[in-house]
Amino acid sequence: MSKFDETMSGEELGNKLLKSVKEMKSGKAARLTKVAANEVASARLKTGLSQTEFAQALQISARTLQEWEQGRRSPSGAAKALIQIAFRHPEIIREGLVTQD
To answer: If you classify domain 39-100 with CATH, what class do you get?
Structure first.
């Protein structure tokens, strides 16, 4: 019988949940996942802009930006150049957003 087939009482479930919470608070998590931001997300984070604001500054849809940040799509040549500029000079991207309004 697998552990998924077992029926647990409410008290047993409560005890397991409490044990899990105590482990998390003590830093004894079963696994730790760290995800490094890709170059698009890194550039956006340097600007301090939200995804929506950064997408507006680059004149792209927020969905396209999300696809780039999640690695499902890659920016084109011109967009790559803008992202490199955003990474090196985030203030320029913020200025561009203000002047578009």
So the answer is: mainly alpha
